[in-house]
Amino acid sequence: MSGAEGVVLAWGAATHRGARRTLNEDRYLVTPSLFLVADGMGGHDAGEVASTTAVDVLGGLGARGPVGRDDVAQVLAAAHERVRAIATQPGRGAGTTVSGVVLTEVDGVPQWLVVNLGDSRTYLMTRGRLEQVSVDHSEVQEMVDAGMITRAEAMTHPRRHVVTRALGSLDAPQPDLWFVPVESHDRVLVCSDGLTSELTDERVAHVLRETPDAQAAADRLVAEALAAGGRDNITVVVVDAVALSQAPGGGLPGDDADEDTRPRAAAVGAGR
Ligand code: MN
C-alpha cells in the first residue's frame, strides 16, 4: 500500500562499505512509501547503531495513512532521543544523518515530502535534469553559501565531513521538511556523501539518464563511486514515479499545504 493513491513507483537500493572503511555505518529504509538514507557517525560501532536506530524508528511512519510534516517531525524527535541514549566513548557522541522522501498526499494531490538533516542528499530528476532538493547541513555548505569556496572546492575541502545538524546532536533536531508535488516520470535519488564526494552531479545525472531501471541505476552509481576511490561508505536509493493516474493539476492544495509547498518551477530550477 503506497502513501498516495494512484502513484505507481519502482525503486532500487544499494549500499557498500567502500574501499577504505572497515564498517558500513550507512543504512537505508525502503518501503512502498518511505525512501530514506541514514549515515551514522561515532566511535566503535556507535555510528552503525545510530543509523540503524534511525531507520527502525522512522519505519513506524509507513504504517500510518497520509503522512504530514508533524508526523515526520515527531518521529524524528523520537529517533533523536533514541540515538542520544546510545552509549559511546567519552567525548564522542553517536549521531546520524537522515535524508530522503516520504510519498504522501495533501488534499488528494500526491507529494514527495522531502526530509533532511545533515549531509546525505535528496535529488530530483525531471525531464533529464537533476537538481539537489535538500540543502546540506555542513560547514562546507555554509562556506559555499558565504561565497568563500566553490561547490567544487567543497568536494575536497578538509572539513567537508563536518555536519552542522544531525540526529543525536546536542541540540534538538531541526529537520528541513517540505513538499514537492509528484509528477509522472519523476526520479528521486537519495544518497549518502560517499556517493557525492566521489562523483560530480554531472556524472550522477549521466548515469541516471543512461540507466532506466532503478535497481540497475543504484548498483551502477555505487560501483562508480567505488571505482572512483570509495573513501567512504556509499549508499544509493533510486525511486521512479512510473505512473500517476491523477489528472494533471487535479485538486488544489489546501491552506496547510500552501506555505510548505515549493513551487514546482522553483524546486526544479533553483540552481545551487
Ligand atoms: Mn558518509
Put simply, the count of helices is 9
Helical percent range?
25-40%
Span from first to last CA?
Answer: 35 Å
Shape type: globular
Tell me the radius of gyration. 18 Å
What is the residue-mean pLDDT, rounded to a whole number?
Answer: 89
Tally of structural domains: 1
Could you please say which CATH topology applies here? Phosphatase 2c, domain 1
What is the correct CATH architecture? Answer: 4-Layer Sandwich
Largest sheet: 6 strands, antiparallel
What small ligands are held by the chains?
Answer: manganese (II) ion
What is the CATH domain class?
Alpha Beta
Q: What is the number of E strands?
A: 11
Secondary structure elements and pairings:
Elements: E1 7-16, E2 26-30, E3 34-41, H1 46-58, H2 69-84, E4 95-96, E5 98-106, E6 109-117, E7 121-126, E8 129-132, H3 139-145, H4 151-154, E9 176-181, E10 187-191, H5 193-196, H6 201-210, H7 214-227, E11 234-244, H8 255-258, H9 264-269
Antiparallel strand pairs: 1-11, 2-3, 3-4, 3-5, 5-6, 6-9, 7-8, 7-10, 10-11
The structure holds manganese (II) ion.
Describe the model:
By secondary structure, the protein is an alpha+beta fold. It has a single domain (2-249), classed as 4-Layer Sandwich (Phosphatase 2c, domain 1). Helices cover 29% and strands 28% of the residues. Strands 2, 3, 4, 5, 6 and 9 form a 6-stranded antiparallel sheet that branches. The chain has a 5-stranded antiparallel sheet with strand order 1-11-10-7-8. Bound molecules: manganese (II) ion. Manganese (II) ion is lined by residues 39, 192-194, 232-233.
